[in-house]
């Protein structure tokens, strides 16, 4: 089973039209990966679909980097009882 | 005599969504003012009190200086309880006299006249129980009183209401400032320009087909054309607008482009070019440049509207534009289909295509689909900023009311968001 990080990178690559291999944990969604505000909304939506979770919009949209997104999503999965291990 | 306005059950209120999501039905406007103003003027009440749905009581109480959901108003005076959907100009019931309950053919209450002497036998703890007891204990009559059935009825009858209200107001002439050159077509008796209003040069006021009433402190910029019947509310500004017949605008609106047969509540902006026809627009709305709505289908058939996102209702009219709830914001170039419903607090980003005919409240319509967007917290922040700019305050009571509206409208919005997710995944 793919890790949370691999799945976050795959979703990010699909939404932002990037090669997953280019995406690093320290990358900022906006400054490094070029996500515009509408794409940020789409990323949150697609993360929710990928992991079967519900995220608070304000909290999710305040996450700046890929690595922080991995941590945030893993924590939400834990809180909502979604097994990602 | 005390006039008591009682709001309808949710299934009836739904016929007046999205405008009635956050206001009682008597705050809806037609002609010069609200349904309440017309009813209160007609019956000559000594005092007025209200019963609204619980979720909006605190917010409404903060807006008005009259009793709201206060059971103590059910004693101490003769009462005239009225369903605000009753059309004021047809309300021919004597305000004083023996107790009488007027019901429609389905047994719904249209009015109840309750003499002070009969109040003793009626429960006062809850308005619903009071009404049921009044129906059971007092003489009933079947009343054939015309009533507003749907939100678009107000739009379709607006021109006639303006004409009637102009006659009732009994004012004409120019008390404001009119700079020359200017043109008034038709009879000057059909034009009233209130004190403080300023009409710039190169404005045409065409009263040939109906009266034009320009209220206090309105400003009309050059190259505006105003066709009657028309009412421009206090402190509104027209920026070279083509204001075709049948509009009620304001107070404090900013209007440009072409507007026809529409009702626009206060503090809303349609500053730029773009057509708005036979529409009903709520408060605090901003329509971006080149936002346009269709109000006539290409096959000239009657327009259907979805008020609940599930079921289309045939309006029976070939001319129905958009129903736009409070705090809606549209981007440049938004195209609204004939008979569109745009739920309150929605944000619309145009895609170049006409929007779906039903946009749920609190939607962020982005990239052609309904999304959760940046959430309701961001919508509230924007609402606060917009209201602050006009010296109005976003209150805690208001937030709580909108939270309730958010919950009420969640099921249909969640369904639309799910549909949007599927569309995103299939791109």
Q: What is the mean pLDDT of chain A?
A: 94
Assembly annotation: heterodimer
Number of contiguous helices of chain B: 9
Based on CA atoms alone, the radius of gyration of chain B comes out at: 22 Å
Superfamily (CATH H level) name of the largest domain in chain B: Hexapeptide repeat proteins
Q: Which bin fits the share of residues in helices of chain B?
A: 10-25%
The major pleated sheet of chain A works out as:
none
Distance between the termini of chain B: 64 Å
**CATH class wording of chain A:** Mainly Alpha
C-alpha-based Rg of chain A, rounded: 12 Å
Secondary-structure element order of chain A, N to C = HHHH
- The overall number of domains of chain A is 1
Uncertain spans of chain A: none
Classified by CATH, the class of the largest domain in chain B is Mainly Beta
Structural class by sheet pairing and helices of chain B = alpha/beta
Short account of what is shown:
The complex is a heterodimer of chains A (85) and B (427). Chain A is mainly alpha-helical and 85 residues long. Helices cover 55% and strands 0% of the residues of chain A.
What does it look like?
The complex is a heterodimer of chains A (85) and B (427). Chain A has 85 residues and is mostly helical. Chain A has one domain (4-79): ACP-like (Non-ribosomal Peptide Synthetase Peptidyl Carrier Protein, Chain A). In chain A, 55% of the residues lie in helices and 0% in strands. Chain A contains 4 helices and no strands. Chain A has helices at residues 4-16, 37-51, 57-61, 66-79. In chain A, α1 crosses α2 (37-51). Chain A is globular, with a radius of gyration of 12 Å. The N and C termini of chain A lie close together (8 Å). The model of chain A has no long low-confidence stretch (mean pLDDT 94). Chain B is α/β, with parallel strands linked by helices. Chain B folds into 2 domains: 2-149, Spore Coat Polysaccharide Biosynthesis Protein SpsA, Chain A; 153-425, 3 Solenoid (UDP N-Acetylglucosamine Acyltransferase, domain 1). In chain B, 22% of the residues lie in helices and 26% in strands. Chain B contains 9 helices and 37 strands. A 10-stranded parallel sheet of chain B has the order 9-12-15-18-20-22-25-30-33-35. In chain B, β36 and β37 (369-371) form a beta hairpin. The longest helix of chain B has 16 residues, at 410-425. The relative contact order of chain B is 0.10. The mean pLDDT of chain B is 96.
